[in-house]
Write a structure and sequence with these properties.
Layout lengths: L3 E2 L2 H21 L6 E7 L3 H17 L2 E7 L5 H13 L5 E4 L9 H7 L11 H8 L8 H12 L8 E5 L6 H9 L13 E5 L6 H6 L3 E4 L17 E4 L17 H5 L4 E2 L6 H21 L3
Parallel strand pairs: 1-9, 2-3, 2-4, 5-6, 5-7, 7-8, 8-9
Length: about 300
């Protein structure tokens, strides 16, 4: 058996085509294109790459993107003032503050300052609460991208045993919340799965992973998940992106080559979850624009 590749690059292109058509329809009806404002503080190379990639994605589908830069030594008051201006700007439907911020910023204060109706990352506490209660306004981009990948490739979720390795606010927690919820009219993304969240204090992690139908690993540790930690026929979703010395391409948190012969399906790195995360940012921005203007 050789694993089915859950190709995020190919699916992201499908999503982009859908969004491009939706935005064209929106403009035909006299509505302005959606607007996404990205805020970049400092000159972190990884953040620069992500922001530039997101701007290219916006261009492909017809979203108006703008980049707002602040130096690494900018004050928190300066960043909050910029966010306030973007909140008030009617041309801006979505605001993205690229994380991580320099250490002198309080990230929670910054995220709380974003208008929740423009929080297309889904990190504002109001949006986190709406997701937790089964009425999401915006689903965070990586969890939503994982859900789209699994459902597109018809991976059964209802009743499945899912192990999420990692409990971050960006991936682990919201993804577990999403997958365990019952699908409803307000929340069609619910997975109806049985979800176990594992982390650094989990006892006997391999045993828990071997019981899972789906293992999602998001801890930022290269090649952490190995073939001896899962059962045959498992579906592996690798959210990790790790740079190793001497290698030009990033690697994931899963041992991709070691798992291919055992897993039923697996996401590659790169080309799996990453493209879908960016595609879901575009989708959330279009959703925000339609909610604000009624142009959907």
């Amino acid at each position: 058996m050789r694993a089915t590749i859950l190709d995020g690059t190919a699916l992201a292109q499908i999503v982009q085509a859908e969004l491009r058509a939706a935005i064209a329809h929106r403009r035909e009806r006299g509505y302005a294109p959606p607007g996404l404002a990205a805020v970049l503080v400092g000159a972190n190379p990884a953040s620069e790459w992500y922001v530039n990639a997101k701007r290219r994605d916006c261009e492909r589908v017809g979203i108006e993107s703008s980049l707002h830069r602040l130096p690494a030594d900018a004050s928190q008051a300066q960043l909050l003032e910029l966010i306030g201006r973007l909140n008030a700007d009617p041309r801006v439907d979505g605001i993205l503050v690229q994380l991580p911020l320099p250490p002198h910023f309080d990230e929670l204060t910054i995220l709380r300052a974003i208008d929740p109706t423009k929080d297309v990352d889904g990190f504002h506490p109001e949006n986190v609460g709406l997701l937790a209660t089964g009425h999401p306004r915006f689903v965070p981009c990586t969890p939503l991208g994982v859900w789209r990948l699994l459902t597109h490739y018809q991976v059964p979720l209802r009743g499945a045993a899912v192990v999420v390795v990692g409990r971050s606010n960006i991936v682990g927690k919201p993804l577990a919340t999403l997958l365990m919820q019952k699908p409803t009219r307000d929340n069609p993304y619910g997975g109806d799965a049985t979800v176990t969240v594992c982390h650094s204090a989990t006892r006997d992690l391999p045993t828990l992973c071997r019981q899972a139908d789906i293992v999602i690993v998001a801890i930022g540790q290269a090649h952490f998940l190995t073939a001896d930690m899962v059962k045959p026929g498992v579906v592996v979703v690798d959210v990790g992106i790790n740079k190793l010395a001497g290698q030009s391409q990033p690697v994931g948190d899963a041992d991709y080559h070691g798992l291919q012969a055992l897993a039923a399906a697996i996401t590659p790195v790169p080309g799996g979850v990453g493209p879908m995360t960016r595609a879901m940012l575009l989708a959330n921005t279009v959703q925000a624009a339609n909610a604000r203007s009624g142009g959907g």
